[in-house]
């Protein structure tokens, strides 16, 4: 694992809102910090309304975490393309994020917050 990446319990209750709906709520979220980047909250899949997510063909590679797959969020009024991602088989040192999904926090479309 890269020394600059830390994964720990996020603590408290976290929610994701998009299109006027709560699409995820968890007391078991994880917080990943990577160097100077803002922290990212990863939600367990069982705490996400997966019916709002549609698997995307988009993918990316992180040399420290591995291959990421993406999801679009389907709301009543639009599709938010590639708004969430997951590492199905993360590299050693960040294996805790397997089975979790993270969301891009964009104040106007997707909100990730602690409540």
Automatic annotation (TrEMBL):
Q: Where is the DUF427 domain?
A: 15-105
This protein's source sits in the domain of life called Bacteria
Q: Which InterPro entries match?
A: DUF427, DUF427_sf
Q: State the protein's name.
A: DUF427 domain-containing protein
Which species does this protein come from? Tropicimonas omnivorans
Upper lineage: Bacteria, Pseudomonadati, Pseudomonadota, Alphaproteobacteria, Rhodobacterales
